[in-house]
């Protein structure tokens, strides 16, 4: 490698690495902001949080890499032009294409590395991060009842408008969707003005005591003609208690990897196999 090629490549690599680290740091902060509700209030140690960020970092590379190449190129070549280094190269008979030859080889090699990275590392990180998120969501669900959003706790989805008390045990504006073991969808809805979390956060039984509310249940008949009128049952209650067994959830292993049913967890071979399977199923 000639001195000129080494000088241009070294200058570009220094800027490239600096910009890449800065942009990756910004995107990681954005990831923390997006998933803060899944991390906060779960009593997670630093190792688990570190794994969470480690598994999400590879997915940021396809976003960070093009920006890094663009910004590094603008900064390096702008600096060359400002210091009249391009003019010096041209005066010695070196064209712009010749000066960029080492960078062209570097970018071509980087493209090949990025392809294998996207085909192997990113599906692995997607697999690990998604399973870790599912496992984190199951840790201490008594602490996971966040305000203003639905939270999955056992076989119910619960949303509260406001939490108060020293442990957040007093709830206001409670909306609960109870899952059915036989039907898909939300057929049971419970709405109450207030509620209280009776059991302690470390208990295996999560007890919700609801007050002044209504219970709605949609009745599904086997005869589809009877479902046209949307039959349902409604009742009012002064007090309603829901017990959720959390023993299985509290024993959740954060390193468990059991879910593989997402297409962004697959590499090219897996995608081709899945597409072929879908094509065969469609033609049956």
User: How many angstroms does the end-to-end distance come to?
Assistant: 59 Å
* Poorly predicted segments: 249-254
Mean pLDDT rating:
77
Q: What is the 3D form?
A: elongated
Q: Strand count, sense and closure of the main sheet?
A: 6 strands, antiparallel
Written description of the protein model:
The protein has 2 domains: 3-137, no CATH class; 141-250, no CATH class. Helix 1 crosses helix 3, helix 1 (3-34) runs parallel beside helix 6 (101-137) and helix 3 (46-82) runs antiparallel to helix 6. It has 284 residues and is of the alpha+beta class. The protein has helices spanning 3-34, 36-39, 46-82, 85-91, 96-99, 101-137, 247-250, 268-283, and strands at residues 151-153, 156-164, 170-179, 186-197, 205-218, 232-245. Helices cover 50% and strands 22% of the residues. Strand 2 and strand 3 (170-179) form a beta hairpin.
Fold blueprint:
Elements: H1 3-34, H2 36-39, H3 46-82, H4 85-91, H5 96-99, H6 101-137, E1 151-153, E2 156-164, E3 170-179, E4 186-197, E5 205-218, E6 232-245, H7 247-250, H8 268-283
Helix pairs in contact: 1-3, 1-6, 3-6
């Amino acid at each position: 490698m000639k001195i000129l090629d080494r000088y241009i490549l070294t200058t570009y690599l220094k800027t490239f690495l600096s910009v890449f680290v800065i942009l990756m740091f910004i995107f990681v902060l954005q990831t923390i902001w997006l998933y803060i509700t899944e991390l906060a209030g779960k009593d997670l140690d630093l190792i688990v949080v570190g794994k969470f960020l480690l598994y999400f970092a590879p997915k940021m590379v396809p976003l960070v890499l093009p920006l890094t190449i663009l910004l590094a190129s603008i900064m390096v070549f702008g600096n060359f032009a400002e210091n009249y280094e391009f003019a010096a190269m041209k005066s010695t008979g070196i064209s712009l294409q010749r000066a960029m030859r080492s960078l062209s080889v570097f970018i071509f090699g980087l493209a090949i590395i990025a392809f294998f990275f996207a085909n192997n590392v990113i599906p692995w990180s997607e697999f690990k991060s998604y399973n870790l998120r599912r496992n984190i969501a199951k840790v201490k669900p008594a602490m996971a009842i966040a305000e203003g959003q639905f939270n999955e706790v056992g076989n119910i989805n619960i949303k509260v408008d406001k939490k108060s008390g020293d442990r957040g045990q007093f709830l206001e504006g409670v909306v609960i969707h109870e899952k059915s073991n036989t039907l898909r969808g939300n057929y049971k809805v419970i709405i109450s003005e207030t509620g209280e979390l009776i059991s302690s956060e470390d208990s295996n039984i999560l007890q919700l005591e609801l007050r002044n509310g209504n219970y709605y249940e949609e009745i599904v008949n086997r005869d589809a003609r009877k479902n046209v009128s949307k039959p349902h049952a409604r009742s009012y209650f002064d007090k309603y208690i829901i017990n959720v067994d959390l023993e299985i959830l509290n024993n959740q292993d954060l390193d468990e990897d059991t879910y593989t049913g997402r297409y962004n967890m697959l590499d090219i071979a897996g995608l081709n196999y899945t597409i072929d399977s879908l094509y065969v199923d469609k033609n049956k």
